[in-house]
Design brief:
The chain has 340 residues and is of the alpha/beta class. The protein is 49% helix and 10% strand.
Length: 340
């Protein structure tokens, strides 16, 4: 395949879209930033490969991608991806619901591959080796380096050939119908982002009582709004330790301008006053709602019911599910066995 063509203007993109509308299939992948260098889920690069050409489309320069979204929704054209979950979420975020998907990652799972990362699969199936070292680089930064562009191109330039080989294997092992069912599920799955109401982590639920959790969630909500406002990921805006300390002792906020772990755009008296207001309002609201300050302990009856449920679960696991799991492993391989 020829050197990738870097598309950085609308006119060139329209030509690519015209070409893509005439093919039977193409490979596609994306590079993105998901709250690592900036706030939100940001599309940074689109890689597309046909049988003989690889395109790298810069969405920061190509402002109107609507023709690509229409092509992705065209069920007459097959789109080949590897491990498409994050890509699908990005497409849905842009109002696109792709159709006629071939996910090579799912194909490898159904075929019982031990390693299903793209690099490993290409090495095993097509004997192609390439580096994955740029995977964690900053895709928001411009200009992109030649190493980044080469890495991005490698993610798509071999997918059509990989699809062909995996298709033959799926059919020869009578797993093609399973695969098609999986692809149908992907097409109908709702990848649209859900509205976020709780910002608490599992660790927060363990460390804090219900009253503190309520207040903490409101402080996190405020932090998220500020992160969105200045376009920075939340971990760069206000570190958790400051918020945790504020719940225990609000006086820490009096020294706001001297605290470490706060983004410089927020380290001013006005933001400190807003955060204090959120803390006071959340505390008062938690009092009005009678949210307990201690974690509730289960009653003896609840403990008994919990024990009975655990015993029933263990019985089902040991006498029914484990034997079925072992049989599936022996017949189809461990990667096709459900994990519970």
């Amino acid at each position: 395949m020829s050197t990738p063509i870097f598309i950085q203007n609308q006119k060139s993109f329209e030509g690519v879209a015209e070409a893509l509308g005439k093919v039977d299939a193409f490979a596609i992948d994306t590079e993105f930033d998901n709250n690592h260098y900036a706030y939100g889920f940001t599309l940074c690069l689109i890689q597309i490969a046909t049988a003989d050409t690889c395109y790298l489309i810069d969405p920061f320069e190509v402002k109107d991608l609507s023709r690509l979204w229409l092509i992705l929704e065209n069920s007459a054209i097959e789109k080949v991806l590897h491990d498409c979950g994050e890509d699908m979420r990005l497409f849905y975020l842009h109002g696109c619901s792709p159709k006629n998907i071939f996910d090579t990652s799912i194909a490898t799972k159904l075929l019982g591959f031990e390693k299903i990362g793209l690099g490993s699969v290409l090495s095993e199936v097509l004997e192609i080796e390439f580096s994955k070292q740029k995977q964690q680089s900053n895709w928001l930064k411009r200009p992109l380096t030649s190493q980044q562009l080469e890495y991005a191109a490698n993610d798509v330039r071999h997918l059509l050939a990989l699809r062909d080989t995996l298709t033959l294997e799926l059919r020869s092992k009578n797993r093609w119908e399973w695969f098609m069912q999986s692809m149908a599920f992907l097409e109908h799955k709702n990848f649209a982002p859900k509205a976020k109401d709780s910002f608490l982590t599992t660790k927060d639920l363990k460390l804090f009582n219900p009253f503190e959790q309520y207040v903490l969630n409101e402080l996190y909500r405020f932090r998220d709004s500020q992160a969105q406002r200045i376009g920075k990921p939340v971990y760069q805006v206000i570190i958790e330790n400051i918020i945790h300390q504020a719940i225990q002792n609000a006086a820490i906020l009096d020294d706001w301008t001297n605290l470490k772990g706060i983004h410089y755009k927020l380290q001013n008296p006005a933001i400190a006053a807003q955060l204090k207001g959120v803390l006071e309002e959340a505390t008062q609201r938690a009092i009005e709602l009678n949210i307990p300050v201690k974690k509730p302990r289960p009653t003896p009856q609840q403990l008994k019911e919990m024990q009975l449920r655990a015993e029933r679960s263990n019985t089902l696991k040991n006498e029914i599910f484990l034997p079925i799991k072992r049989w599936l492993e022996e017949k189809y391989g461990i990667l096709l066995t459900p994990i519970y």
